Amino acid sequence: MADVEATKSLTGLLNGIAQKTYYNNEDITEELLKTELYPELSQENFNALHERMKGILKSIAVADMDHGQLEAFLTAQMKKQGGGGMSEAQATSLSRFWKSQRARVRDSLLAQSRWEPGLRGLTWRVDLQTSCSRSQEEEAPGGPVALLELELGRSSQNSEYVCLECDEAAFNRVLDKMADIQRRIDSVVHSS
Q1: Is 92 helix (H, G, I), strand (E, B) or coil?
Q2: Which of 65, 62, 37 is nearest to 50 (CA)?
Q3: Angle at 74 between CA 70 and CA 79, to 5 degrees
Q4: Same domain (yes/no): 106, 126
Q5: Are 11 and 91 part of one and the same domain?
Q6: Residues 13-58 pLDDT 10s
Q7: Which residue from 29, 32, 38 is spatially nearest to 8, judged by alpha carbons?
């Protein structure tokens, strides 16, 4: 019976750590976790357990371990000597937790690593310049222009739209910059 309670407490602790760290639930605190899950444990022992599980969970999440990697990692953790090891019950709890939460933790980490606001969409077309689209002093009406519409937004909000108008030379500069960005990204990806 004690093993069942220990497993439930550890599962609750892992869920609490995930709620706070990966799902940004501000209501979850270390004090709440200790009070609800480990009231008999000293503060020092709880802090050690909490930090250890938080570190292990971070290692698993950052590596986005699949089942095989997780099993090898947990086996290595169980074999550690000198009190730094993990019990089989703890390994089982971690394995069950990761199996059920892997996709959600991964999505959360990806969302946290994105720049906001982000580019959600881009549409463009070539049109003829009209006399109201630019001042009469710049150019005579009737030349081709590129009309770009950028859809920008944060993940939890409605989109905002920015419309740009540029002539052929400006549009070619934009294309050159985008090609340069792509080359730089490719060089980083291929050098890794």
Answers
A1: helix
A2: 37
A3: 150
A4: no
A5: yes
A6: 999 999 999 998 999 999 999 999 999 999 999 999 999 999 999 9
A7: 38
